[in-house]
Write a structure and sequence with these properties.
Radius of gyration: 14 Å
Shape: globular
Number of strands: 8
Number of helices: 3
Order of helices and strands: EEEEEHEHEHE
Strand content: 25-35%
CATH class: Alpha Beta
Mean pLDDT: 92
Largest sheet: 5 strands, mixed
Number of domains: 1
CATH topology: Hypothetical Protein Mth938, Chain: A
Low-confidence stretches: none
Distance between the termini: 39 Å
């Protein structure tokens, strides 16, 4: 009996992660990226959580996800509500966690068919 759900081949899933990289559908990324189940990884332009600006968060508004997972690197760093203002105003849920936890959580939510967006800082 097969217990794994079947995913469309174009569904973006985290296939591996480690220090300095995240692999999505077998393609390695070594810089910050953003992706969703039906949206392949795109560069995110964030070097570290300390250089993040409102414009970086604004870039996460499309395609209107129900939840944004922000991976802040090796450690979890909390972000100010002022920085998250646009997500709050658009009533988009968000969670901030270390990048490894964001990868695991993304796969679970994407596997459930949720409209989740991963925004990952790679250190």
């Amino acid at each position: 009996m097969k217990l794994q759900p079947d995913f469309s081949p174009d569904t973006q899933m985290v296939s591996a992660y480690g220090p300095g990289y995240v692999e999505v559908n077998g393609v390695r990324h070594d810089a910050a990226c953003v992706f969703a189940p039906q949206r392949p990884p795109q560069p995110w332009g964030v070097v570290s959580v300390h250089t993040m600006e409102a414009a970086h968060i604004d870039a996460l508004l499309e395609p209107r996800p129900e939840l944004v997972l922000i991976g802040t690197g090796r450690q979890q760093h909390f972000l100010s509500p002022a920085l998250m203002r646009q997500l709050i105003a658009q009533r988009i849920g968000w969670e901030v966690m270390d990048t490894a936890a964001a990868c695991r959580t993304y796969n679970i939510l994407a596997g459930e068919g949720r409209q989740v967006l991963a925004a990952l800082i790679i250190e």
